[in-house]
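WARN no homologs supplied; continuing
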Amino acid sequence: MDVISAYREVGSYRGAAAVCRTTPKTVKRIIERHEAGGGPPARKERGHNYDPVTELVGERIGATSGRISAKRLLPAARAAGYAGSARNFRRLVAKVRAAWRRGNHRGRRPGVWAPGDTLIIDWGAEGGLHVFCAVLAWSRVRFVRFAADEKATTTLGLLAECFETLGGVPRTVLADRMGCLKAGVVANVVVPTADYVRFATHYGFRPDFCEAADPESKGMVENLVGYAKRDLIVPEVPSVADLGAANTAAAAWCAEVNSVTHSEICAVPAERLETERDLLAMLPSLRPQLGTAAVTRKVDKLSCVFSELDQSGFPG
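OK structure emitted
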């Protein structure tokens, strides 16, 4: 109970002190200050033993973009006169780093997706089995298939199957910086491989890549990878030895999750796909050739195969 209220109830310092579990002198001091019209005394700001090095820590945090650790900063702080504990110094570094990040945030905002615009793809792995995941951003339609590797031919083949399942091609395919589709990076811009460029030209979409070390830019498909591992791989236990059965189970699982209400958009993805399909580009009549084209050679009467660049022969 409040001291002033207790004093008004019982009418004595001793009684109010017993109710509030304090001393009568404390009650008397509070009542006299209240009757004189004064408020509670101002609290004195307590200093910290790390105050002299706060500016030094702020400069080093800013110079390293918040990446330097308290362990590496502590020797410099000791040289500047800090005599406190390492634990207290870590509190200072954590506080200064949090303040720096609040003032230097790059301004992330939730993605706003347009119908027929973006398909997000990524790979996951579980126990030697590789899982290819794709999400059509606006309708949230999910596509999951299994494979034995993450080669470029496998990735492009499953992407082509995804387009056929969706019934069209979106304008942009957003991928992680996966090595099978990346030829190099110039000025933090990913250069796609020639095979991926030919594949994108054939289907008529724009290849795009996520920012480096930025999982939030593809969090939608990252969540799908984790969801597929928990809800599909763990119960079904698919095997690399029987990819046909594994992909049959994956297709049935996709049909199941796409036919129920999505928790974020509060709509059924399969129903939204019917609306979005009208805005997808048409599929080409044929799939592109993936991988190196086969080379034919003529076998002569000696049953030897000769190359155009090499006149030596070998048994055919």
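The CA atoms of residues 59 and 96 lie 10 Å apart.
OK
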